[in-house]
Amino acid sequence: HFAPPERLLLEIEELFLVIRRSESSRRRKMVAAKKTKKSHEGINSRLALVMKSGKYTLGYKSVLKSLRSSKGKLILISSNCPPLRRSEIEYYAMLAKVGVHHYNGNNVDLGTACGKYFRVSCLSIVDPGDSDIIKALPGDQ
């Protein structure tokens, strides 16, 4: 009981189409991952320059203080910052007309990017120093 050859050819062609689609989507995902990784590295190097030459505050309470006293120029929030804290920081930043950047990594990654050995859920850049991070990250991304 064999299927007619035309039907087999159609099934084989459909399989090839499915394989091609999955390969092209895999390539797109890899390109997107490379782009985010490159932008991630750019943010990290700019952040390292701020840590060396600028002024900043780390942590939720000090970020709110810097926003209330209108000293903060840019706020970075990690991806796993609790939603209530995140929305409160965003609200204060909106009132102070300060940009907020949602950092792609979690609080461990943000702490490492700051050159610290502890977790950082949010940070406020008071003075960027030699870095161009405020121009490079125009608010929410």
Describe the secondary-structure layout:
Elements: H1 5-53, E1 55-58, H2 60-68, E2 74-77, H3 83-96, E3 99-102, H4 107-113, E4 122-127, H5 133-136
Helix pairs in contact: 2-3
Description:
Residues 43-134 form the Ribosomal protein eL8/eL30/eS12/Gadd45 domain. With 141 residues, the chain is α+β, with helices and mostly antiparallel strands. It has one domain (5-136): Ribosomal protein L30/S12 (60s Ribosomal Protein L30, Chain: A, 2-Layer Sandwich), CATH 3.30.1330. Helices cover 59% and strands 13% of the residues. The chain has a 4-stranded mixed sheet with strand order 1-4-2-3, sandwiched between helices. Helix 3 links the parallel strand 2 and strand 3. The chain is elongated. The protein starts with a helix and ends in a 5-residue tail after the last helix. The mean pLDDT is 85.
Describe the structure using short key phrases.
141 residues; alpha+beta; 60s Ribosomal Protein L30, Chain: A; 4-stranded mixed β-sheet; 5 helices; 4 strands; 13% strand
The general outline is: elongated
SS field, number of helical segments: 5
Average pLDDT, all residues: 85
Number of strands: 4
Gap between N and C termini = 59 Å
Helix and strand composition category: alpha+beta
The largest sheet is: 4 strands, mixed
Strand content: 5-15%
The CATH topology:
60s Ribosomal Protein L30, Chain: A
Global Rg? 23 Å
* Helical fraction: 55-70%
Unreliable spans: none
> Strand order of the main beta sheet, please?
1-4-2-3
Q: Architecture in CATH? A: 2-Layer Sandwich
> What is the string of helix and strand elements?
HEHEHEHEH
